[in-house]
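Its record is quoted verbatim for completeness.
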Amino acid sequence: MWHTMSVDDISKKLDTNITKGLTSKEASKRQKKYGLNKLEEKKKKSIVIKFIEQFKDFMIIILLIAAVISMIVSYVEGTNDYMDSVIIIAIVFFNAIMGLIQENKAEKSIEALKKLSTPTTKVKRDNKIIVIPSENIVPGDIIILEAGNFVPADSRLISAYNLQVEESALTGETVPVTKDSSLILNQNIPIGDTVNMVFSTTIITNGHAEAIVTDIGMHTKVGKIAKMIITDESPETPLQKKLSDVGKKLGILCIIICIAIFIIGLFKNISITDMFMTSIGLAVAAIPEGLPAIVTIMLSIGVTKMAKKNAIIRKLPAVETLGSSSVICSDKTGTLTQNKMTVTKVCNLNGEISAKISSTDFKYILELGTMCNDSIITHGDKVQGDPTENAIVDIALKNGKNKDKLYKEMKRVHEIPFDSERKMMTTIHKLKKGYRIIVKGAPDVILKRCNQYYLNNSCYNLNSSDSSKISSINEKMANEALRVIAVSFKDVDILPTPIDTMHIENDLVFTGLIGMIDPPRQGVRDAVFTCKKAGIKTVMITGDHILTAKAIAKDLGIYSENDIAITGNELDKLSDREFEKNIMKYSVFARVSPEHKVRIVKAFRKNGNVVAMTGDGVNDAPALKNADIGVSMGLNGTDVAKNASDMVLTDDNFVTIVEAVKEGRHIYDNIRKAVHFLISTNIGEIVTIFVGLLLGLETPLLAIHLLWINLVTDSLPAIGLGLEPVDKYIMNKKPKDPKKGVFSDGLWSKITFEGIMIGFITLLSFYIGLSYNIDVARTMAFVTLGLSELIHSLNIRSESSIFEIGFFKNKYILLSFMLGAILQIGVVVFKPLAIIFDAVPLNEIQWIYTILLSILPLVIMESKKKLNEKIHGKTIYSLYKINSN
């Protein structure tokens, strides 16, 4: 219905002011009435359902059934010896509670992740233009749309300039639709032909517009399409899938071993019930079913840390990939530089001019520059908009050329917006007689379209000698690291039709060059140096002149003598094969288009690199999607770029990318440590039972012991390892090979050795205890296994000696160790618990044996590290330390 009404009728119906927008008070009232502007989410599972799902594991179900059967048998036989079964059920329930807590924590982290990347929209409120979260938009709001925005709600256009919208989300058609705000349409018209409206989730590909919001949330066109409703499903990351797969394989192996243990026990005439419970208890304790959950928690913790450092991760797999980054392709403006432009030089055909030298030309160049411009002047002569355009408007203001006053004399009636392919923008202004067309953009592009030049209030024919002179001035300015903008114009009596680049942007009068400096961001030089140490190549990509790009890249340490700088035109002349062969030699790409970016990413990836690519424009989306890690800009990026990216920089800063890579490496290292710990200790438990039975010993541990150790030693130390502080030499290592898995570089052999070590130490404790009696032996084995696993968590912290990295740097691992040790010793010392856990009091000699054996993993691993140090000359840690100096 809205498309059949005029803008005035709609504004009256929705009780809104087109010029001033809604008041904050009115917007708040409407939000209470209409709700938030978002689609309904999939109904979440209740906490009861989530708790029940903790018991869906087959082995846990078997264990619970076995415990119940054991209780029934005890009752029937009249022994009333069912305390073990009760405790086993209690431990399983406590494990389920822990699993539920972990799941909720991971879910909350994902929710927080969604909130961090909430889209925003420009709206008019209280006669001001402000930016608000898109979900806070209400019917009657006046919204401002620009190229690259997602349309936040169904809206009727008030005004539109060269507006094109891609509506494939609704219609399936990828060809953008040209919109027209002036039309009033018939009632029964297809969505694709509703050219006076824009619809939620569609994309502005060109131009800009103002519109009245008519429908929000589930009342929008997209809200009525069931298949478009957002779900809460979060796909597993590659690492989670890999670990889940490893967990299943280890689980199958563990089950086979448990069956073998059960059969061996039967041959040794051990009670069927006891053997069955022990076998199933071992399976539950030793199968590392919690690996993917631990990884989710660690990834979530990492995401939270990165968000605090201005890097918002949109997709969890990006955290894993970041640690493998070997090439960072970064835009120059705003990412490597401050994007705070200041005009420092203005030139005409004869060279540099100023308000004192050739003042007429100087002011005319600034007049044209400020008129062909989208920046706006706010209260107190403050300028708002793109930094390049702001710099021009600002210097024009200081020299008496006020854009708003000029527009009153020469009204802006049409425009062709800037785009990265044309590298220029055009505005058309109404004169008393005829029209003035002003074109500004890249000097080399503008110069090709000029056939005259302006000097001292007159126009002259432009010959090749004049063009060479202008090019020479441009090169000199570029060599001074200036961003250079050319300004041109032409006056016409009648506007040609159609108003497009071919008819408008030719036969121009070259007027002058405006040079501005954009200083490097603080910390970028150090970040580039850090990348070099870390084996990461930094590449600058810019639309600027190649000489400007080279000068800045050299200053930042990106470009050196043996490197190559190349322009987009030169790149077009290279075959893919030749380009890919020499790709690692290129450090600067100048005058490139978004299509070139895609080619650059593919070439680096073909050479086995993991590529991070930055982008902010609509046309950057393909390059961001093709990169291993697409990085969009939070301050100046378009919605399209953000949606295509894996990570959003809230400060648009290159330093943040490097910090994110560092955090990515840190998270991956800690995940490896947790995996290392969990699997090695689980193998230790299997070895203890299996080898003990093979050696002809009685069952060294009962089911209740195994489940308790699993509860105390698995979760807390693993999470503690996940919170290990970042190694200060982590950025002195080369990037991780993406083809190598989490168990590469000998991790499997380390896990196997350490698992066997823990198992045999526990068996030794059991064997010593047998010289007293079976109850003492089991108690000693129980305490030794629990404490040795906790002590082993300290070994996992680093490849270097614990004495070198320091005991107290990770307070979480220390707390988990102390808490675990207190609980482990407590169930033996505290008599009521000792009875429950079938443990007996130990005398002084037995405690000395137990404590010494528990510390043995630390002694063995420290000796092994020292031996490695002697074999390799220095510790890995020390080598990284040397490399950093």
Confidence is low (pLDDT under 50) at residues 226-234. Residues 21 and 334 are 32 Å apart (CA to CA).
